[in-house]
Amino acid sequence: xxxxxxxxxxxxxxxxxxxSAETAEDKGLAIAKEDDRRDNGxxxxxxxxVMVLKNRQGETSTRxxxxxxxxxxxxxxxxxxxxxxxxxxxxxALLNFTHKVGTDDQWLYLPALKRVKRISSSNKSGSFMGxxxxxEDVTSQEVEKYTYKWLRDENLDAKKCFVFExxxxxxxxxxxxxxxWMDQAEYKILKIDYYDRKNTLLKTLTQSDFHQYxxxxxxxxxxxxxxxxxxxxxxxxWSDYKFNTGLSNKNFNKNxxxxxx
Amino acid sequence: xxxxxxxxxxxxxxxxxxxxxxxxVSICQAHEFSGYIGSQARLFPNSAxxxxxxxxxxxxxxxxxxxxxxxxxxxxxxVPFYRLDSADTERTHFDIRELTFLWLEDDFELRLGVRKxxxxxxxxxxxxxxxxxxxxxxxxxTEDKLGQPMxxxxxxxxxxxxxxxxxPYFRERTFAGIGGRLRGSIIxxxxxxxxxxxxxxxxxxxxxxxxxxxxxxxxxxxxFVGTSRNPTLLDGTDSAGKAIKIPRYEQILQTxxxxxxxxxxxxxxGEALYRSGQGNDDYFAWTGGFEYTFTRAWSxxxxxxxxxxxxxxxxxxTATTAFENDLAGALRLAVNDPASTExxxxxxxxxxxxxxxxxxxxxxxxGNNLLLTTEFRTFINQPATDFLFEQRADEILQIELAYYx
Lengths: 261, 405
Fold this sequence. Notes:
The structure holds two protein chains of two kinds. Chain A is of the alpha+beta class.
């Protein structure tokens, strides 16, 4: 065979079976599973985040939150978020048990009353702390929470990406679909377009300044969410990641929620 | 036993703790200070019914907080509190809200010192909450509490959380003085306080609580043995022959259950108690209801909650509470804006009479550190037999601006 034809043949041979046997849904799911596999095994981490809320007029408001996360075998993560600023909500803390299937369990600690309150988490479309992030955007992303469909491969910022859609399977999501740009080399999510219940573009999340932790996990330092319908935006900046901090199940109950600060 | 040392003893005790705290601070490595300072105005649109009362008042409040966490996770917390009030000398008061050493071990948590503990599930009436005394002069909603000295050990296991409490010292309820509104016509004289126990405020009270979350259910089962936090008010006269109310604190046994269940957008809540030792007969009381939340109400960022609760006390008209058979309904709006604007509008209706009260609570942040809160409360159609009859003119508008640091 002439070299050119040989290359063509090889391309057909290796690509054709892939295209015919694997549907776009299979491929989308395979990408999500591979991403999940790469994300698993961190065990636990703590990190700080600063959230800057910006309205249409450009006025800003800042929140400081600390996070503790524990990986749970066979289920979603457990996490505690502790609010440091604004000062009037200092000490307020949220305990969240994510589940792969079904609604999450959530408890809110109100320090002024010393009260732990069970809260309803079935509707995850609500705003997280007045930001452009909804609860469903910031809680642990499990493979089972969506169905998938691969759309195409394309470059974003000179990085080769998978572009796929995911459709929430849990009730009361604020979205019909999300279009995800994921870099093929490291499975980093670079961008997500969120479409509202009317299937109109609602928000775009852009993630940047990725750092690798434990030689395995890539986490973005900046998560920028822009709401196209209201002109408001939120920049979430992560810092001080610490892994294997000795957290265990004991650190994620109502007692530890009360003293988390 | 002379009356004067009662208050004195607590002050001595506070000073001792304060002294040990100061010694302690000097050996701490990291310090964390926070807290708030605020000013408050209270306006009463209706003229006062009782002699000595004023139609408006102003006050200043200061509550700093010191916190230190050790490498081990154990911690130390100190929260003093002071309010200076223009109208009511009883509302001008100092308290140690918290002065706690928390010792964290793998198997248990030991908390020593002055603390605040909350038990319960419902929104309108906190029926089973009994560890801390109510700081009634702060607010009649009973959500402000005095610091309670205690030793508390807590075991957290797979089967739930077990808490044991030893409460070696009793705190008396605060009551409005002559210049204060939101009181009856006859002053409660806290210098004449009586106790059923001869140990008086040094009676050791005990409590045990088991709490656990079973799937969608959160359950708390508690037993309290000791001095009742709400007194029976007896008629008496002071040295000048003027009528006064004498608070009398009985020894009681209280068994209680509180639970909540989450079901989709619904939260179901209930609290019930059985108490003996107060009055001639044992009694039951319960409260319960629901909270339903519309997330992103009206396709906006706002969350709207609807709350409905029923309160019942088998003592009926002889109950030492305003909630002997009442229904409450409330709307809670969380705007979810950067200023965290929140509004709670409520209505409490007596089922056996036309008496009702309305309340509105709203808060909004200005900048990063200022919080404005307003409260409005009014009493409508109180019959002469109602618990709140003598407070019928005490419709109140309260505005507070606080700086948090």
